[in-house]
Amino acid sequence: MTASQDNQSATTADSPHRQESAPTPAGNPLLDVAYIAVFAALIIALAFVAIPVGAAGVPIVLQNAAVILAGLILGRTRGFLTALLFLGLGLIGLPVLAGGKTTLAALGGPTIGYLVGYLVSATVAGSIAYLAPRGNRKALTIYLALGAIAALACQYLCGSVGMMFRADMSFGQALAVNVPFLIPDLIKAACAVAIASGVHLSLPDIRRKAFLK
């Protein structure tokens, strides 16, 4: 065997290793912006679905689940920015909240804590979801479920604190306001986990090639 053939064989033998060690392509920031805009639009569109419950003025909505979904799919940074964009559009007068309310109008009401909870929950959901090991469907589902439950707890906690200050309630009374929403919210969270799991399995690049981690 000639020296050139030896070099060619060595190159061929090394090629699989080189392919395996190739770095993941850098993310596209414009694609991240598009994801953020799409999920913000989805959250706003779901403002038209609201069912008033109880005397505290807190309706059953789909927006809280959509915020969690954004975090589960996009991760903490993009999830947070999605919620921030959604609420920011409401600050300039767009009716982005349930019942056609603006963020400005909600800031003066008892539900202000839930708005803060949207920002926190998207971040928490994304932080936990992106800890899941890649390629393991069972682990992914577990982390997504943990992220959704933790995010929902953050929404309840922030909302209850807001109720304490704006509705003159004790912490226990404020927490009790959330009881009628628990079962519907858990169902919505389960749906969000199922959707997020399907997206991550079918579109792994959403996580792997994210520019904004």
Instruction: Count every helix, treating DSSP H or I runs of 4 or more residues as helices.
Output: 9
Number of domains: 1
Shape: globular
Beta-strand share of residues = under 5%
Helix content: 55-70%
| Neighbour order of strands in the largest sheet | 1-2
Low-confidence stretches: 9-24
By CATH reckoning, the class would read Mainly Alpha
Task: Give the rounded overall mean pLDDT.
Answer: 87
Question: Can you write the helix and strand succession as a string?
Answer: HHEEHHHHHHH
* Count of beta strands: 2
Which second-level CATH architecture applies? Orthogonal Bundle
| Rg from alpha-carbon coordinates | 22 Å
Structural class: mainly alpha
- Biggest β-sheet description: 2 strands, antiparallel
Distance between the termini: 50 Å
What does this structure look like?
The chain is mainly alpha-helical and 213 residues long. The chain has a single domain (27-208), classed as Arp2/3 complex 21 kDa subunit ARPC3, CATH 1.10.1760. Helix content is 70%, strand content 4%. It contains nine helices and two strands, in the order H-H-E-E-H-H-H-H-H-H-H. The protein has a two-stranded antiparallel ribbon. Strand 1 and strand 2 form a beta hairpin. Helix 3 crosses helix 5. The longest helix has 30 residues, at 137-166. The chain is globular, with a radius of gyration of 22 Å. Mean pLDDT is 87; it is low at 9-24.
Provide a concise account of the structure shown:
This protein is mainly alpha-helical. Helix content is 70%, strand content 4%. It has 9 helices and 2 strands.
